[in-house]
Amino acid sequence: MRALYAQSGGVTSVINASAYGVIDEARKNGLEIWVGINGVTGILKERFLDATELDIEFLKHTPAGAFGSCRKKMKNEADIQKLFDIFQKYNIRYFFYNGGNDSMDTAWRVQVEAQKRGYELKVVGVPKTIDNDLPHTDHCPGYGSAAKYIAIAMMEAALDLRSMWVDSTQVFVMEIMGRHAGWLAAAAGLGWLNGIGADIILLPEKPFDKDEFIAAVDRVVTKKGYCTIAVAEGLKYPDGFFVSDMGYTDSFGNRQLGGVGFTIAGMIRSELGLKIHVAIPDYLQRSGRHIASATDVEEAEMCGRMAVRYALEDNYGVMVTMERVSDSPYQIRYSSVPLNLVADQTKMLPKDYFDGYEITEKFIRYALPLIQGEPYPPYRNGLPDYRMFDIG
Amino acid sequence: MRALYAQSGGVTSVINASAYGVIDEARKNGLEIWVGINGVTGILKERFLDATELDIEFLKHTPAGAFGSCRKKMKNEADIQKLFDIFQKYNIRYFFYNGGNDSMDTAWRVQVEAQKRGYELKVVGVPKTIDNDLPHTDHCPGYGSAAKYIAIAMMEAALDLRSMWVDSTQVFVMEIMGRHAGWLAAAAGLGWLNGIGADIILLPEKPFDKDEFIAAVDRVVTKKGYCTIAVAEGLKYPDGFFVSDMGYTDSFGNRQLGGVGFTIAGMIRSELGLKIHVAIPDYLQRSGRHIASATDVEEAEMCGRMAVRYALEDNYGVMVTMERVSDSPYQIRYSSVPLNLVADQTKMLPKDYFDGYEITEKFIRYALPLIQGEPYPPYRNGLPDYRMFDIG
């Protein structure tokens, strides 16, 4: 009777802390814990690591998916049959799947198919996404660290621009991940708590109006000489079309987006004739473990532990969630939600978390506890002492 | 009899530490120290801050130019005459100018013009550039911190790609600052000391051969499934033409470059049909004080102090330099070089610091001491406690 853990979807700087939580909690409870390499993609090839004796300490400070992730969806019958043959072969009875919206859909399908087949299997989802767009949870592990990274990056870039604008660059644009929701882009405004941040935040939740936007940039530049802009990659026109659509879809069927920062910069250059710099942190924002949030690292680990505890309490077919008890002092309570209620769902930034191109007090009260603390990784050779498993 | 300090050119995460060094050393030696806002641009408008009583502690941990920088060159007679009228009016007799190649040219012109005019003025240049391309100094303040940032960013992105390549993105490209020289791009290879870094580094020092490059990417991807690439913005074809030329020049007459990351990615996509992510850290790499190098912060401050000491010893018309005494234990000696020997000069990466697309042991021995130590800034609200002067 074995437990299996695997990682799925875009990684974060703290997903390995969840892996640590699952593995350590499983061991403490006497479960034989295995790990699937590259999520269901590797499991279908019987690629496993026995984690019962693995040295896992470094998982708490190493970003990205130490066991490999995947983008695969379990949509066809042949894959599902093969998965259950493999589960049966290795007597896998617990399945902890660590991912976001798409991955929770996979977890849900596997749970449903197990019941259909009369195969005893307890599936628990461990939430993970820098996008923070899973419903029924106050927030998601991975978001706090990415938000902290973005807030700091925007502060530092804004200080840079503030130095340079008098006879050089006057506009800085940072393109931020967030295909559907603006949670992460909104974090670019948090720096104002310490005096400097994004002047304009373009969110997918606010349909893009070019004329209104250009007028806003012009106003800011006229007033203070320079303007910092955060733009979510999922920015949309009122008709729902992405401002920057790359023209193709990934294997989950999501439209590939890219280059919205340059699209926006081009508009400003042609309309206002200003010199512009564009930054695209890309992977850096989601794997920037060197400046993770302590709250996030701790909660990521606890979400992993809770998944094991729920499964052992026969609370399965669920995803671990966090409920906000209070903002200050910050307090959360762990809970769970049926997987089908999160599968393929998206939680947008609430209307009262932003006002035009700015974030509100309410968003700040929400986000502030999530970026607290600096659990720096250990350093060796002047660089983080990240470690790896041999995953082929 | 006053001393004047000012900042010029693209900023760094430690230029303010040099400002701290100049101001503190000047005070200790009884000089009345003023600061020019926005370099010569502001000085020509008589924009000064009296720094004799200013609270300057935060300069040691706040990135970018706290006093504002500029891109102005002192090329015309009217500007030079006006500058000397202003120097005379305020009895400015020491001028500490903090910048890179172009700024040292300005410092040199000012020193020469002072001598021509019989105006007693002692000019000392304080080096600063993330590009690390000033000659006659072992390295430049600003480089160590930017190199540390790039090395860590590439490690984190490489771990991300390593998680994802099996059924998603297989190539990651990071576009790195460095108009003429590949010092900073080379730092993307330092992560290998801790197990993971850039597979291919494209340097301006090695003329770009598209076919050879595509074959190299193909080899790496075939061997291990994914490939990480660092590309310097100043990458050139054998005929000297930039691989990505934006089509215009800045006010220093430098060609504006941008988008080489996407140019390279486009080549790989069309030749090899692989899915690619591109990151452009832009300002983030040169103002990322949250992960500066301790060596760099200390040396930046000392370069500021040495500038004042040299001026007081009547060693002027020079720039402060650092000479490497030994790599291990790391030891440097401060010295100086006549400004005309650094003005508008560029030091390229030596031929034995790279081999094809990789860095050599020799580069590692050179760069390693420069990225040591983590002098983290203080935090407030979960964010760095950066501060600002009111510079208008």
From TrEMBL, chains A, B:
The record marks 102 as: Important for catalytic activity and substrate specificity. It is an enzyme of class 2 (transferase). The keyword Magnesium applies. Its EC number is 2.7.1.90. It comes from Fervidobacterium thailandense. Residues 5-308 form the Phosphofructokinase domain. This is Pyrophosphate--fructose 6-phosphate 1-phosphotransferase. Its cofactor is Mg(2+). One of its GO terms (biological process) is fructose 6-phosphate metabolic process.
